[in-house]
From TrEMBL:
Gene Ontology cellular component terms for the protein in this record: chloroplast thylakoid
Organism listed in the record: Glycine soja
Full protein name: Selenoprotein O
Sorted UniProt keywords: ATP-binding, Magnesium, Metal-binding, Nucleotide-binding, Nucleotidyltransferase, Transferase
InterPro entries: SelO
Length: 516
């Protein structure tokens, strides 16, 4: 009954203690130099920044925008625009960094101590070997097609190949305007940047697929933001996160081209071939001998042969990765908040940390996104269905490009549903330490938690204090849970006692049969 949310993540990366000093005139925040673990720094034997192994397959193999300015515009017949960081900085400072992410890049930990590191990772000084660009994509936002979106404040520096031949893409978020910024300023603030840095690394250490964060740098300038969208904007410290992922390709990366002319429709196939070649090589190398043929759930029990169409195998894997990701979100109470198709990774990663939140009091209708409050489209309970809806939009795009047929599209959605239920059942069974999935017990637990607004994370942590002993008197059963079962009356105490007795009985049987 051990719950992983109890594991501290702060031991894995370093946060220099901020010492804000704001002058009355400039109101510029300054941060002290990084306080790093010298022993771990000395043990690192990686590469210098100048020696990183850059590759630029995305720029090299895919069509780009002939223009290189950041003037907002519609970008046609292209997957990206080469554009350089333009954010204004004033004495940028390194606030946080992740040594485990540096290890992915073969980067020496001592590089974080370089005085010019904040200049490189604020975009003020170009990194040797980098080739910055902003990606073009579209998407459905809150169920409606929004047209061209793209990287409005993020710029990819390029891809780094490490010693294990892994490809890692580096991206600066908050680095300035791009052609996809529309009416925005292309900047980011420290408040939201800290949230992204912390949560992306936390999610990784919880075992949930996610983008990572290498560094967090303040720009030294202020950015105006209306935090609560109530018409009261305020100035906040500007910041830039260096995000890291094997790819930032999204469902919307394909949708944008399918939404345009026949000429752009061909880019769906080009981009699919690129993704399969670099990120799904097992599908590229698939052969008939793999025998990946499956019966569909249709009445005619037709067969889908994934070995005869690599695009069908590809979309099925994307559907399954997405389902597995969302099942894990539900397990830890994570609510993304903005599950638009432009925020859905083809690698099944958690990306674009915006107004996310974790459940406190268990409320299936919880949404951390204030703009989602009226309809709660993206609330916690809706995430599995929204994932399926987004997969349906992605399969529609591939069908429009003649890469898959209707039966293959339906099979991908069928696999999404099956994989989600499989992974969710495993997640919840492990969370409760049960011998096997018990739908009635888990549903009753969630119902009780919703009625009494029980803290989702703390409940499972506290449940580990309950002894699997059926001889505990009824009036003592709830004592270990008193910190989370607050202000409940006699009727609710009886409901919880009944559930807990059934739970203890189930767990004790498991231990008896497992350990004798």
């Amino acid at each position: 009954m051990r719950y992983e949310m109890g594991v501290s993540i702060l031991t894995r990366f370093h946060f220099p203690l901020p010492l804000p000093r704001a002058t009355a005139r400039k109101r510029i925040f300054h941060f002290c130099p990084p306080i790093a673990c010298r022993s771990s720094m000395d043990q690192s034997s990686g590469l210098n920044l100048e020696d990183l192994k850059w590759d630029h397959s995305f720029v090299r193999e895919l069509p780009g925008d002939p223009r290189r300015d950041s003037f907002p515009r519609e970008v046609l017949h292209a997957c990206y625009t080469q554009v350089s960081p333009s954010v204004q900085v004033h004495n940028p400072q390194l606030v946080a960094f992740s040594q485990p992410v540096a290890d992915l890049l073969d980067l020496d930990h001592k590089e974080f101590l370089r005085p010019d590191f904040p200049l490189f990772f604020s975009g003020a000084t170009p990194l040797v070997g980098a080739l910055p660009y902003a990606q073009c994509y579209g998407g459905h936002q809150f169920g409606m097609w929004a047209g061209q979106l793209g990287d409005g404040r993020a710029m990819t520096l390029g891809e780094i190949l490490n010693s294990n031949s892994e490809r890692w893409e580096l991206q600066l978020k908050g680095a300035g305007k791009t052609p996809y910024s529309r009416f925005a300023d292309g900047l980011a603030v420290l408040r939201s940047s800290v949230r992204e840095f912390l949560c992306s690394e936390a999610m990784h250490h919880l075992g949930i697929p996610t983008t990572r964060a290498l560094s967090l740098v303040t720009t030294g300038n202020l950015v105006t933001r209306d935090m609560f969208y109530d018409g009261n904007p305020k100035e906040e410290p500007g910041a830039i996160v260096c995000r890291v992922a094997q790819s930032f390709l999204r469902f919307g990366s394909y949708q944008i081209h399918a939404s345009r002319s026949d000429e752009d429709l061909g880019l769906v196939r080009v981009l699919a071939d690129y993704a399969i070649r670099h990120h799904f090589p097992h599908i590229q190398n698939m052969s008939k001998s793999d025998s990946l043929s499956f019966c569909t759930g249709d009445e005619d029990h037709s067969v889908v042969d994934l070995t005869s169409n690599k695009y069908a195998a590809w979309v099925v894997e994307i559907a399954e990765r997405t389902a597995s990701l969302i099942a894990r979100w539900q397990g830890v109470g994570f609510t993304h908040g903005v599950l638009n198709t432009d925020n859905m990774s083809i690698l099944g990663l958690t990306i674009d940390y915006g107004p996310f939140g974790f459940l406190d009091a268990f409320d299936p209708k919880f949404t951390p996104n204030t703009t989602d409050l009226p309809g709660r489209r993206y609330c916690f309970a809706n995430q599995p269905d929204i994932g399926l809806w987004n997969i349906a939009q992605f399969t529609t795009t591939l069908q429009a490009a003649h890469l898959i047929n209707e039966k293959e599209a339906n099979y991908a959605m069928e696999r999404y549903g099956t994989r989600f239920m499989d992974d969710y059942q495993v997640t919840m069974t492990k969370k409760l330490g049960l011998p096997k999935y018990n739908k009635q017990m888990i549903n009753k637990l969630l119902s009780n938690m919703a009625v009494d607004k029980v803290d989702y994370t703390n409940f499972f942590r506290t449940l580990s204090n309950v002894k699997a002993d059926i001889n505990i008197p009824d009036d003592e059963l709830l004592v270990p849970l008193k910190s989370v079962l607050l202000d409940i009356g006699k009727e609710r105490k009886e409901a919880w006692t009944s559930w807990l007795k059934a739970y203890i009985h189930e767990v004790q049987l498991f231990h008896v049969f497992s350990f004798g």
